[in-house]
Amino acid sequence: MVIQILLYLIAAAAIIAAAIDLIPVWKSWFGRIRIGRYDDRRAWSRALTARGLAWLSRIPAVKVTDNTRLIALDMLQGNYTKSAIQHWQEAALLLGLGEYLRHNDDPAAREGIRRFLDSKLDGSGRWKEQPKHVDTAILAYAILSLDFIGSDRVEPAMHAVWELIREHLGTDGTVSYRQSVKGYRYVDTVGFICPFLVAYGLKYGRPECVDLAVKQITEYEQHGMLQAHHIPVHAYNVENRVPLGLYGWGRGLGWFAIGLIDAWSQLPPDHRHKPVLERSVERYAEAIMRFQQPDGSWRWTVTRGECRPDSSSAATLAWFLLGASAIGRISAECRLSAEAAIRYLMGVTRRSGAVDFSQGDTKDIGVYSTLFDVLPFTQGYAIRAVNRYLNTFHEKGEPR
C-alpha cells in the first residue's frame, strides 16, 4: 500500500511538472493564431496600451534561463526569474504609458500607474525594497518622467539611485554594470543610467550627473564601437579596451539607442553638451538605418540577414529614430525608417495586443537567448514609439 501511494505521488508530480512545461508552449501557440492582423495604427496603439496597462499590475515573468523542460525545478530553486530583469520590463511599460498619457486623458491609466508606484515606494517616497543594481535607474527615470507625479513625491528614491550609481563608478570615471565586473563596461548600462542621470541632474541641479551621462556615452563611442560601421559591441575591457561579446547584438543596439536619444532629447537647446550628443545621434542614426531589413526589422544579430528578427530591437530603434527625426538633416530618412519598423511590429502583434518574437534575456557576455516570445520591455517601447509617431505626425492630418 505504501509503495502504491508513493507511485501515485510520483505520477502526480510528473503530470504537474509536464503541465507546467506545456502551459507556456500552449499559450504561445494559441496566442499566435491570427497574429499580425492590425492594419490601423490607432487601433493597434489602443490594443498595445490596454495590454501594457494590464501587465503593469502583474508583470509577466521573464525567464533567466532558456530551459523549457522541468521548469518547475527552476521555480523551486529561485532560478526562473530575477528582480533585476523585471525592473527594466516595468520601466519600459511605465515609459510607454507615460507617453500615452501625454496625449490622452485616461483616468484609469493614471490610477493604474499610481497603484504601481504605491507597490514600489512608501509614503515618504523611499523604495520599499532597496535597489541593488544599476538596472533600477531606468525604472527611476520612468517614474521621474511622469508628468502627473510631483518630483517631491519621489525625491528620496531618486537620491538613492544616484548614490547606487556612484557606488558603481570605476577608476576611469564611468559606471560598471555590476560590482562583480568592475573592469568591464556593458552597452546595457548606457540605456540603464544615462536617461536617468540627465533627468535627475536637470531636476535637482546636479550638473555632475549630466556630465557623467555624457561621459558614459562618449567613452562607449570611443572604445566600444566597430569603427567602420559604428555599431556597439556587447562590452569592453576598461584596462586594455579589448571588445567582449558580439558586435551588432540587436538589443545592444537598442540599449545604446535609448540611452543616447533620451539623454540628448532632455537637454535644453543651449546646454553645452547638446551639440556633442546631437552629432552622436546623427552618426548613430545613419549607422543603424544601414542594417534595417526590407521588412522593417533588425535581426537579433543585425549584421546577418539570416538571423531571426528581434522585436525588442525594432521597438527601441523605432523610438530612437522618431527622436532623431527632430534633426532636420536626417529627418526624412529617420521617419521612413521608423515607419517601416512600426509596420513590422504591427505584423508580429498577437490578437491580445501583445508584441511577439522578442529575444529572451541574455545569459552572459556572448551568450544570447534562443527563445523569442512576448517581452514587456518590447511592449512598453512599442507603446512609446507609436504614441510619439501618432502625435508627432498625425496631428497634422496625415493618413494613418
Automatic annotation (TrEMBL):
Keyword Membrane: yes
InterPro entries: 6-hairpin_glycosidase_sf, 6hp_glycosidase-like_sf, Glyco_hydro_88, PolySaccharide_Degr_Enz
Domain of life (superkingdom): Bacteria
Example of a GO biological process term: carbohydrate metabolic process
Keywords: Hydrolase, Membrane, Transmembrane, Transmembrane helix
Any Pfam family hit: Glyco_hydro_88
TM stretches of this protein: 6-26
MF-aspect GO terms: hydrolase activity
UniProt KW Disulfide bond keyword: no
Alphabetical list of PANTHER family matching this protein: UNSATURATED RHAMNOGALACTURONAN HYDROLASE (EUROFUNG) (PTHR33886)
Name this polypeptide is given: Unsaturated rhamnogalacturonyl hydrolase
Upper lineage: Bacteria, Bacillati, Bacillota, Bacilli, Bacillales
